[in-house]
Amino acid sequence: MENIHELKALLSAPKDIIIISHRNPDGDAIGSSLALYHYLCSFGHAVHVVLPSEYPDVFQWMPGVSECIVFDTEPDRTREVIEHAQLIFCLDFNSLDRIDKVGELIQPLKAKKILIDHHLYPEPFADYMMSDTTASSTAEMVYDFIILMGHKKEIGLATAECIYTGIVTDTGSFKFSTSPKLFRIVAELLELGVDDYRLQDLIFNSLDEKQLRLLGHCLNNRMEILPEYRTGIIALTKEDYEDFEIVRGETEGIVNYLLKMRDITLAAFITEQPNIVKLSLRSKGDFSVQDIARKHFKGGGHRNASGGFSFQPLKATLRKFKELLPEYKESLNQY
Prior knowledge:
The chain is an alpha/beta fold.
């Protein structure tokens, strides 16, 4: 990060600070935001975490999560804390359109903006930028940020638990984007008192009966395998959402089940939303789903985990996706 000394000076006295992450926040968005929240609060700053939309119930256990302000449910309070902000941290997103109307609120403000993110192609909207596309997660980068600030010894248990949550969710329990550096960080988090078994149990073993039945429905009735392209697809209709009363977060991770098959390289989870069709893409090895998402579905993300959307109906989107596969056949069969 350039101008770290300027940022240290800005943070040397208590400030009104907001931390913002992206719509439909996942474990890394929540984990990195709350980790930074606890760290900044420990130095006397007045800090608020702002989320454009609600977070999944699976993260209800996290320290400080109940203090998050959700724009969709509290627009007036969101505007109030944003208007008073002296510093704005932008975490786990690379452009203001990822935070919807919240982006429109912060764009004209004179408050300094600090971006901490690991996605490709960050837009230059921030005054200070910490961008590392090799990082496993934004949570890992928050750890790096604290080290840059010279405060390693000030990392408390709550901060450590939140960093671990962001890392373990964005790496798929240490399957993606790992490095020797990452495991050294995780070892240090455990030395600080993080109970990795407890946290993984809270994160990954919190399904209810309805979610298990939904998973069974997806695998038994909505799964399509295209062996010639080493591709698996699960597509959910609006009727599926109504029949299972699906709410935010309940389909998280379903796409990964497709990759449990030995001969599948590309997994697609395609869902019919009220106004758009969403795509969640995953892959193995060097095959880049980020390329597909960016070029064809107005999205992006990482090499092995990306997302996008389509304004076409579900059937048309499925057809478009399948028609792209011959273009990638050679790459898919190299894994």
